[in-house]
Amino acid sequence: MAATQLRTVTNNSSKIQLERIAHVYFEHPDLDAFNQFALDFGLVEAFRDDEHILYRGYGVDPYCYVAQRSKTNTPSFDGAAFFAQTKSDFEKAAALDGAKVSELSPFPGGGKKVTVKSPSGFYIHVVYGQKARQPAQKPMSAQVESLGPLNGSMSKHRFGKIADKL
């Protein structure tokens, strides 16, 4: 039996380097109904206009979830957005065939976004230049302080549903 050879894995600098996920896009037929769910789930409204509601958590991202009014009256996933590591990586994404560059300036944190369609038909968004928010120092809110640990190994607490045993 021949010894297994380990392949050396290298990162090709010609590839677009992504840092981490920025946020996700979903379409909802009823933004008000989804808004209640999002608030119960523990998300915080960060921005609203007629077509969007953006939600954030307690981290540094200005938002993590973009709820958009559905154009087809059905819910759908409109892709995930990832932070480009560098401006050069963002420019590589912008140079792809079919890429659409847009401003995120109306939204918290600003920046720019490139949207491309994957070979399987899903949208992929690449973000650059978005400013992080400064999260609040403790206490984050009276509600968070009163809940104690938000998630344990056996119980998962949600803001809209406080468990009988805290």
Give an overview in words.
The chain is α+β, with helices and mostly antiparallel strands. The chain has two domains: 18-131, 2,3-Dihydroxybiphenyl 1,2-Dioxygenase, domain 1, CATH 3.10.180.10; 136-166, no CATH class. It has three helices and eight strands; from the N terminus they run E-H-E-E-E-E-H-E-E-E-H. It has helices at 31-41, 87-94, 142-147; strands at residues 18-28, 44-48, 52-56, 65-69, 76-84, 100-103, 112-117, 123-128. It has an eight-stranded mixed beta sheet. A hairpin with an 8-residue loop joins strand 3 and strand 4 (65-69). The longest helix has 11 residues, at 31-41. The relative contact order is 0.18. Mean pLDDT is 85; it is low at 162-166.
The CATH class name of the largest domain reads: Alpha Beta
Anisotropy-based shape: globular
What is the N-to-C order of secondary-structure elements (H for helix, E for strand)? Answer: EHEEEEHEEEH
Cα-to-Cα separation, first versus last residue: 58 Å
Report the CATH topology name of the largest domain: 2,3-Dihydroxybiphenyl 1,2-Dioxygenase, domain 1
Strand segment count: 8
With strands numbered from the N-terminus, the spatial order across the biggest sheet is: 2-3-4-1-5-8-7-6
Sheet/helix structural class: alpha+beta
- Strand content bin: 25-35%
Overall pLDDT score:
85
